[in-house]
Design a protein that fits this description.
The complex is a heterodimer of chains A (193) and B (201). By secondary structure, chain A is of the alpha+beta class. Chain A has two domains: 17-93, no CATH class; 100-185. In chain A, 56% of the residues lie in helices and 13% in strands. Chain A is built from six helices and five strands. Chain A has helices at 2-15, 20-45, 55-68, 71-93, 114-129, 159-173, and strands at residues 100-103, 109-113, 136-140, 144-149, 180-185. In chain A, helix 5 packs antiparallel against helix 6. In chain B, a hairpin with a 5-residue loop joins strand 4 and strand 5. Chain B is of the alpha+beta class and 201 residues long. The chains are: A alpha+beta (193), B alpha+beta (201). At the A-B interface, helix 1, helix 2, helix 3, helix 4 and strand 2 of A face helix 1, helix 2, helix 3, strand 7 and helix 5 of B. Strand 2 (109-113) of chain A pairs parallel with strand 8 (182-187) of chain B, so a sheet runs across the interface.
Chain lengths: 193, 201
């Protein structure tokens, strides 16, 4: 049972973002600001000249911001700050799924990239329809697979056969969540293959 | 498989986001409502005056002049230290050792990742579906975990590669003598694009 939980944990950590980049950026900015404020305070206490602004000047400036700035500028600055805050909130609350799927396996945690699935599905569809490389492109999402077929001019392709082959291919992967394929056959074909 | 504390990351990011959102809302409100702007200026100047009286309330001989100023610097330095600790807590946990066993004081046997890596590479030699493999070891909860990264050839079936990986893992289990948690990652990379698709046999 604990083996199962360990595997689920591994899969979850591999398929979801850790938010390390956002954290590193935020922590770096916070550390820089705090260190700068501390340095300015020490410089002011020692009555040395400030780096950018002494704490007292900073405080006066902050208190005077509404009086010294155009209202439109205040609104714009406030909107900018709010958007930045929303971005951080979104990073904190959205699941942050990466473009990877988990495959069922008895022994280990297996995670496969969407790109690999797309390329295998393309190959299967291409072999089924007897097309040349490059005539089938596949996009894999979290819940859907879109197979786009560009037939050879004058030769019709069997949509049902491609659909069945793609379904069978996806079923063989036993992915953790079912992804439904849609087959899209383009009206314009390519010449002489 | 790194040691990044993801819950902590999200909590701290949410806090930072809320603070920024509140500051943005206050600034925008000051721009739109004159009452808020007036309140801001009044609160700001009264806070500045209070800071002055507080600084004067605990005088300290010497250049620092006030205990409160020293305390302020200490708080700022502490906050900077906590930020740096958050920064440093990202990642980590990778190890070069797959296993370690001590034999009652007579000696210690260490199995390095390189051994498993070499075995995996040898087992995959000549495999048409897998273009490259890398093995790394990570400290997971109370155990060492293996991370096996396989680079798939263009068009290679993930199922076949997963089955190959299962065989590899069985081999690793037999080699090491006790099962480790294993994460298999099937990816595409530069070699996938360069090597091209497999021709029909």
């Amino acid at each position: 049972m604990s083996q199962d939980r360990a595997i689920r944990r591994l899969v979850r950590r591999e398929t979801h973002a850790s938010r390390a980049t956002e954290s590193i950026l935020t922590a770096g900015v916070l550390a820089a600001v705090f260190l700068w404020l501390a340095l300015e305070t020490v410089l002011a206490l020692l009555q040395e000249s400030p780096l950018l602004a002494s704490p007292e000047r900073l405080g006066r400036w902050l208190a005077g911001v509404p009086a010294n700035t155009l209202p439109a500028g205040l609104v714009a600055a406030g909107a900018g700050l709010a958007v930045l805050g929303l971005v951080l909130l979104a990073a904190a609350t959205t699941p942050g799924r990466r473009s990877r799927h988990a495959m069922q396996s008895g022994r280990s945690a297996v995670v496969v990239d969407h790109e690999v699935i797309a390329s295998a599905v393309s190959r299967r569809a291409r072999l089924t329809a007897g097309l040349a490389p490059g005539q089938v492109t596949t996009t894999v999402g979290q819940r859907a697979v879109r197979v786009q077929v560009r037939p050879t001019s004058g030769v019709s392709v069997d949509r049902n056969a491609i659909g069945a082959a793609v379904e069978g291919e996806l079923a063989a992967y036993s992915l953790d969540r079912r992804i439904a394929p849609t087959i899209h056959i383009m009206r314009e074909g390519v010449l002489g293959q | 498989m790194s040691h990044t504390n993801r819950a902590l990351n999200r909590i701290l990011l949410a806090l930072a986001g809320l603070v920024l959102l509140a500051a943005g809302a206050a600034t925008a409100a000051a721009g739109m409502l004159p009452d808020v702007a007036g309140g801001w200026a009044a609160a700001g100047s009264s806070l500045m005056d209070q800071a002055g009286t507080i600084l004067a309330s605990a005088p300290l001989p010497g250049p620092a002049r006030s205990w409160w100023a020293v305390a302020g610097v200490a708080v700022l330095v502490l906050a900077a230290g906590l930020s740096i600790a958050w920064l440093a807590s990202q990642g980590g946990g990778r190890t070069s050792r797959v296993g370690q066993e001590s034999d009652g004081g007579r000696g210690t046997t260490v199995v390095e990742t390189g051994l498993v890596s070499a075995a995996v590479k040898q087992a995959l030699d000549g495999n048409r579906q897998v273009l490259g493999a890398s093995v790394s070891a990570w400290e997971t909860r109370g155990d060492t975990g293996l991370r096996l990264r396989l680079q798939a050839r263009q068009g290679a079936s993930p199922r076949e590669i997963a089955d190959t990986a299962d065989e590899l893992v069985q081999g690793i289990d037999a080699l090491l003598g006790h099962p480790l948690p294993v994460l298999v990652r099937i990816t595409s990379g530069t070699r996938t694009k360069v090597a091209g698709p497999q021709r029909a046999r």
